[in-house]
């Protein structure tokens, strides 16, 4: 376990108790001083806890007592829902101040969350140029590179020397999202090169920027999906990536810290989809902030699609009803065989879906994958089959033909489920759909039907005379 | 879709074809020149494809023709398996050269993968101090902060001026992993402050480092788990975090680019665990590089645990066998009721497990979560129940008491499954186990038994006279 993190969190818990005590006794300034022992990210965490424990009013009081510059930082670290809550508790003037002081990309994020009348009020007090820029940014589609980027980058001229550039950075650096990667544009605002601060620091002052800039660089288009942007960050390990418009003019940059959140959101989306939850809202809201109706809407489609599949499963059973009523003992093993088929199929599909998402496996590997899953299935099938033969025969005391039916069915069900589980994601991806979204319902429906058919087939083979 | 990435990838595909042609015609230098149009990360990608298409020998030839400095970069971007492959094809001298030129953290990674005799040969040609350091680093537990860090950071003295510091960075900067965050140590190597290059760039040359360094900073311990390190990166958005030993002496730094891989690996681990695959090897190898035996070993435990659970399910069915054989129609709806219970339960557990992992929900929210899931379950249950009443009665033509049995069972099963699915992860987390690892088998086993019990109870209520 991590000592540092634990110590830090313990320490924060103690402060939290102190602050709650101070608030109870209305010693607001003592509470604020306790809070100011921490950095902005930690203060934001503590304020969110105080909002839960002592209510919004106390949180607002504390927030308003923070020094102005710190309050802006703290605000930018709060979760979107808490930002909106807080905005309701403070004056329009305070809101305007905070929003104007925020980094441009954070400003866009909060403006997207705020009610429209408040956005208008804030934009009224914004200089015309910036207002225009804000409106452009607000129009980029959600989850696009455009919605992640900031226009606050350092822009250099190719003819400048390193000395000129460093002077420029000294002047405007405080307003930029990063000064570590600088962007060289030509007269028509096309991006022609990239130069890192580290290159400049190790170069002589009279070196020309054009001579040290990298002209082979990776850039993103404004409408590129955030998932692809995050893949590029992973691949290249850059601190920031430039974003260009359709005419290849530089319009903004995306920095790595915004990508960490994207990666988490994308993983969450995949995990939810693989387990039958489709987020139709697509708003990155937390579990508790999503309404009961929305939760139900997100979960119903998959369950309803499977209802159709169960009609077929039901039909298969009904057609075998006569035989089942003669050897009723067979019913007891149906859940196990179907369940094991589903579980073992979803093990395979999980590995393939994730492998496709992380580029570990490719569509062209399908034959290798199929052959591998057949062997894995056979191995697992034989082991489970042996276990079940003993269980059905010795533990449950059934005759050997029933034990043979169950255990032989097991082998074939596991192999088939592994084949289905590994191939369906590949087929879904091949027709350009998201395997995480489609694969599991498809596998569940097919594998249940296959499992039952195999089981009844085995019953006819081993128990033919009794049915 | 992303135009840039597609264009770039298309472009790379064309080059790939050209290179394969050149290799066919033994025009190795033309192939190399085509390759050199790209940056190191892309060259590594292309080489991996060439390894797949044209074999290791061609890859080795191409790799050896790369300029030395580029070949080192390319090597560091290759996947671990391809690195090991490549090492087999080049001379020991070339290996030594590459390994010595690699950044320290990449060096450790490849040394961990190489066969022991080769590691010894490389270490023989390493200066004693570095050899000692390498051995220390090789001993940090896998997935710890120690295994991720590099000792190649910029270290400053508190009494230096910004001018001194910049001169120092100019001299040693090329060997450091990052120069954007510099570390200030006292005489006993304790970390006392952090100063960013951006602060130095906007400060005057004669400012003292001690006056501008931040003394309130976040650090990691060497044995901290990588998941917690990545959480801290997400929370604070820093470029790099310092790592200290048990005596709080600075031993290395972790940079954000190494964390992107960690985040992906951790998400993969969670996804696999949630779907019943436990990676016992814990080696971050790709799907195709894991043997059939290892795959089977990773998947069997969960399936075997559930076998035990199915013994109970089987017993419940057996105890009801007499009644089932009288109303055999009931059997046809068993898979649907159990399956829906499992699916709807795993929807809830997925959201809660992921919410706990991303700190979106907390243990103390359990009552709110339970109440929410009961309402969601009731809503979904009523809808599915109505659908099923009509199906059983009208579509399948069963008598109304059977339709009532199935549809009433559905409501209660969905509500119970949602309660189980949401509460079991919380209980598992409360006793300090990983919810992703334990929750799903636990939910499957309990929810199947509950679903059957509810179903048979409903049958006794609505069909009591017939059983």
Structure commentary:
Chain A is mainly alpha-helical and 467 residues long. Helices cover 68% and strands 6% of the residues of chain A. Chain A has a three-stranded mixed sheet. In chain A, strand 4, helix 15 and strand 5 form a beta-alpha-beta unit. In chain A, helix 16 packs parallel to helix 22 and helix 17 packs parallel to helix 22. The longest helix of chain A is centred in the C-terminal third of the chain and has 31 residues. The radius of gyration of chain A is 30 Å and the shape is elongated. The N terminus of chain A is likely disordered.
Largest sheet of chain A: 3 strands, mixed
Radius of gyration of chain A: 30 Å
Largest interface between protein chains, with number of residues from each side: A-B, 122 and 121 residues
Helix-strand pattern of chain A, N to C? HHHHHHHHHHHEHEEHHEHEEHHHHHHH
* Low-confidence region ranges of chain A: 1-5
Count of DSSP helices of chain A?
A: 22
| Termini separation of chain A | 60 Å
Residues in helices of chain A, as a percent range: 55-70%
DSSP summary, beta strand count of chain A = 6
Give the overall pLDDT of chain A as a whole number.
Answer: 88
Report the portion of residues of chain A in β strands: 5-15%
In the sheet with the most strands of chain A, the strands line up as 1-2-3
Oligomer: homodimer
General shape of chain A: elongated
* Class from secondary-structure proportions of chain A: mainly alpha
